[in-house]
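I would like you to sit down with the record closing this message with an eye to the fold:
=====
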Amino acid sequence: MWDYQIWKLIAIALIFFMQAGFAMCEAGFTRAKNTGNITMKNLMDFCLGTITFIIIGGPILCAENAIAGGLLGDVGQVYKGMFGEGASWYGWTDFIFNLVFCATTATIVSGAMAERTNFKAYCIYSMIISAVVYPVEAYWNWGVGNSGWLQQLADKWGLIDGTAQGFIDLSGSCSIHMVGGLTALIGAWMVGPRIGKYVKDENGKVVKINAIQGHNVLMGALGVFILWFGWYGFNPAACTEWAGYEGMGQVFMTTTIAASLATVTVMMITWIKNGKPDVSMTLNGSLAGLVAVTAGCARVDLVGAVAIGIVAGFILTFGVEFFDKVCHIDDPVGACSVHFLNGLWGTLACGLFSTTTGLFYGHGFAQLGIQAIGVLAVCAWTAIWAFAIFGIMKLIKRKDGVTPFLRATPEEEIRGLDLTEHGLVTAYAGFQMAPQSFDYGDAVAQVTGDVPPSEAIKVETMPDVDNIKPGDKTITKIEIVCKERMFETLKNELMNIGITGMTVSHVMGCGIQKGAPEYYRGIKVEPTLLPKIQVDIVVANVPASKVIETARKVLYTGHIGDGKIFVYNCLDVVKVRTGETGAKALLDVE
């Protein structure tokens, strides 16, 4: 008994760590200006969910005595146990195990509704999911002692001939992922797309879909790896009591195989469709396989895991494009396809690939029928609550009297929810290019002595900016845009012909060809902006023609993308330190 409890507590820690994976995955696949907001949402999923689960959700899910034909449990009995009467370390282990499962359900929703949802509204519906939506349907499936009505289907409704064994959802493809994914789908549809995602004509018809790319693929990838790692607690721990320790190897194997096959499938599909393997979609493929195999991880063999994973890859790829291109539902992270569609598929797949009761193993349609009934019941329960919660939040208006309570205002969305919801200028302050005010104190060198600071350096009269006239020589500004790899050679050659200064910037741009066509999550990115180097030079003593010719010789390869050279007449130059103007301002000679 002790070893089982210790293993389950370790698994609880792994499942909790999945919250970090969800946070990183969602933040990486969305824009930087909403990173702090997404972090807060994933934190509040768990913390607010813990409070509501302890007060309401937990007693519903953990009740031992069924009432109303297995639709609910005896909540009063649980409350007595929680406050000392019958409480035990064994009961608390199961309680916290169900709590971390509940938090996973709630956090799925945040990704699909990211970047445009009011934080207050998010906190409210997250608490409702943890309090009522998840606990009730999870009780149907996992009620203590098989007291939930879905577990009693096989015997009570006479649907079987001794082969089926009740509703199969060992680790939550249905009760967790499908529920979270369906809620996310309804929420994303009702909150509406992000500003600029879909371009419509005067009749309201979508004529163009814009790809809004995530800001940090590495963060998203690390999130996926953390989730995959956490799944090794998520699936095995839920099956330990049913399959025993000897069955854990099978669970680890099927979990790994399905995820791997789904990942490779998505990579190959996107490679064939778009000409290159899509990184974001392939990462989603890993999660799709994990979700799909979760229901039957201890009831399917190697062949079943392979089949489930491959189908999950197809469902993920075409599901993302279906919701985006056909339904015009803006789901920044693909949660609807990963969790709803593949949660649905994984649950039904148990009726096909269960080695003891599945159709493909010679046991008829009974198990598949039970799985279908369970899916329909759970979807109906979830949809009723989701439409009610989000519908009410759409009817209530914000202070402006126009924006629904569910949604951020247009100004908040454009500026970013980090700033408008949390007062966080940026989640990446160390990388921010905007000037910041600091009190440096004595760190700044001061002019000392008897000479006033304004006379410490000889300063010529500052010209009147409104009446600047060309100096004694023609001054020309030359702007060179080139490939990054050519910069060092260009810099050295320009120095060799006497250029004394330049300004260099990393820029993004495209030429007439609009860049090579690229795709993000199946949507064409137009135009493709490629990384370039921009070199700005102002010359007077060195002939502009010499600079241009030097740059052409260095940059020319004869291929598209060699760069551009722009030449401007420069009215004048003013050296700030001395006030010198014209050609003299370009020389660094006192």
Q: What stands out?
A: The chain has 17 helices and ten strands. The CA atoms of residues 43 and 373 lie 34 Å apart.
